[in-house]
Design a protein that fits this description.
This protein is an alpha/beta fold and 276 residues long. It is built from eleven helices and eight strands. Strands 1, 2, 3, 4, 5, 6, 7 and 8 form an eight-stranded mixed beta sheet that branches. Strand 2, helix 6 and strand 3 form a beta-alpha-beta unit. Helix 3 runs antiparallel to helix 5 and helix 7 crosses helix 8. The N and C termini lie far apart (41 Å).
Amino acid sequence: MSDERAISAHYRHGHLLQAIESALDQLGKTPDSVTIADLAPVDEFHIGGRVATAHLLSPLGFGASDHLLDIGCGLGGAARFVATEYGSRVSGIDLTEEYIETGTALCAWLKLDDKVTLRRGSALSLPFDARAFDGAYMLHVGMNIGDKPRLFAEIHRVLRPGAALAIYDIMRVNAGALAYPVPWAQDDATSLLDTAEQYRRALAGAGFEVSAPCDRRDFALEFFNKLREKAATSGPAPLGFHTLMKDSTASKLKNMIDNIVNGYIAPIEIVAHKPE
């Protein structure tokens, strides 16, 4: 099995749209009444969810005239947030067919299918013309992509001069054996982590101007503490990471948190620009 097939298989749920509909029923919602806020706990599959998305993207000034690329879009939650919050048009790409199918249905529920288009494809061979986009972002994607130079060269190709690329990935901070499984991998065969310095070199090699990285370790640990406190007082929410990861949720989250606490990994932001 190729790396991309193995990665896609790792994320496949089997009945994801039905699981979301069932959870919405518990919330007293239907596809006709659901809101973008209702879906936020499940459709932004990265540490910090929507808060993290806004922290990364809000300083970049994206607006209604922009066409943006969401690399590794998952269910398209960030794309729908961007379309709603900034008015931008967004094209998303992801390896996992079930995520694309489910995300397209969610766009239709929210009547955002005129602003957000999701398609299956590889970030290493983007099915878009050169200079097609005014900006791009990727949220917890690089952990599954080993060839960062090729990734960033492809993104550079499809961005217009002056465009921003915003990255929020889990990166290596110190050497050490990671505990598995984690949300992005069962073992180190498809856990392709790099350091922020390796990202910087790959981005610069592709032609980007790169900002200093922003380490979000403390934010991550606070986010998980709040989740634990909420679950202890209110019980598990109908929608959340468990909707995506099912019975493996507890072990994957525990291992990820332990890896962060032990100083091996951290979520880190990097913003790069394609020169004018």
